[in-house]
Amino acid sequence: MNIPAPTGVPGDMTRSLECEHHFSAPIRILIDQAVSAGWTAMEVFTAIEEVVKDQRQAQMLDPDPAEASEEIASVET
């Protein structure tokens, strides 16, 4: 999946709408594929919401996980 770079600056309301636009089709395709596989739409919506919630929490706890991985690697060696 290719997501283009934003055209607006952070905090610009159109940037948020642009992001939603770029994610809309891929998420609809994901939902359609899951429903075709036998999941109910409500199960898929709930799963997506939970994954997003978990990812948001992980981001808040560690905004740069790559940096933490580098720190762990340097301690291990």
How much of the sequence lies in strands comes to under 5%
Give the overall pLDDT as a whole number.
88
Could you name the ranges where pLDDT drops below 50 across 5 or more consecutive residues? Answer: none
End-to-end CA span: 35 Å
Secondary structure category: mainly alpha
Supply the number of helical segments. Answer: 3
Gyration radius, rounded = 17 Å
Features:
single chain, 77 residues, mainly alpha, 3 helices, globular
Care to describe what's here?
- With about 80 residues, the protein is mainly alpha-helical.
- It has a domain at about 40-75.
- About 75% of the residues lie in helices and about 0% in strands.
- It contains three helices and no strands.
Provide a concise account of the structure shown.
With 77 residues, the chain is mostly helical. The protein has helices at 13-37, 41-61, 65-76. The protein is globular and about 40 Å long.
Compile the SSE list and pairings.
Layout (H helix, E strand, L loop, with lengths): L12 H25 L3 H21 L3 H12 L1
